[in-house]
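Intended use. Records such as the Leucine-rich repeat containing protein entry shown here are meant for training and evaluating sequence-to-structure methods. They are not intended to support clinical decisions.
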Amino acid sequence: MYNKKRFLQLLRSTDQVNVALALEVAKGMPAIDLDHYLEVYQVMNALLRPGTKEEVSVEAITRLNTEDLKLPKYQLAHLPKQIGELAQLQSIDACNNFLTSLPESIGQLKQLKKLYLQDNQLSDLPKSFAQLLQLTLLNLDQNSFSDLPSGIQSFECLLELSLNHNKFTQLAENIVQFTQLQKLYINHNQLKTLPKNIGQCGQLQKLYLAHNQLTTLPESIGQLTQLNELKASHNRLAELPKSIGQITGLYNLRLEYNQLIQLPKSIGQLNWLYHLHIDHNQLTELPESIGHMNWLYYLHVSHNQLDTLPESIGQLAQLQVLEVSHNRLTTLPKSIGRLRQLKSLGLTGNNIAPAELQRIKSWLPHCDIYFDE
């Protein structure tokens, strides 16, 4: 025997046989307003297939019963309120449109886990958005947000938040309420500071801050012990906090195009660091502790003001690429000859005499060395 609940289960199935059965069952159940339940499919089908006027088919209904709704580059100015009826949705991709707002009905999508809204014209989200408690990924890149949308701090399941290319000048301190957040991308904004309590985002693994106006990083950043990627290039950083050495799982650190004068000795505690990029700064020396980075493969320090390299650089047994072009070097420490894995050495734009260059070549016979001809 069929009832309304069973009818809806059949109608919302991804099996065409079940959908056809639901339509047949509805004919014998006067209490069911079939036109009402089909409205969402008619509206969404017209949205996905502009110009389509025929009655919505079993195939079209089945197609819309998917858990994944893709609406990229549809030139949409709005999403229809009926979208809230697609209760099975777990992912919506509505990127590259002209959306300025979302319907309140979106809060009805209790199963929604992933929402891609990048490259629209959004500056806020509806109050009902706070009801999307299963959301794990939210992409708001290339919109017009200047603050975290109200209500989303209740998203305890959120793992990835992308806010690139917006208008943020600061991050609210309540961002730490995202207790499970693993990836935070906020490149290309106007950030001048980070919250002092950012260290409370204890599950954070990736933090991308490039192309902002940051002058410092808070000491609490050292509490992000799960962090493995920190990208803060193209900012105005003049120094790094000593606590950075506490992020011992870090394997990728990008700090190029800042105003760094020196690195803290604690940076040598980053034993698992694989990439270190500090090109285009104002460094006059590297700390001896850099030799403790046992797994460093890539070290880029070109376009600084280095006149020497530390003797400890010869301890970087895994180093494969050393880029020190455009500094003030006249020689390299002899210990560099111990870098048996070194494959590429960039020396262009320094003051190394030909005789000294020949000595360096003799120390590293299997390394490609780039220099001024």
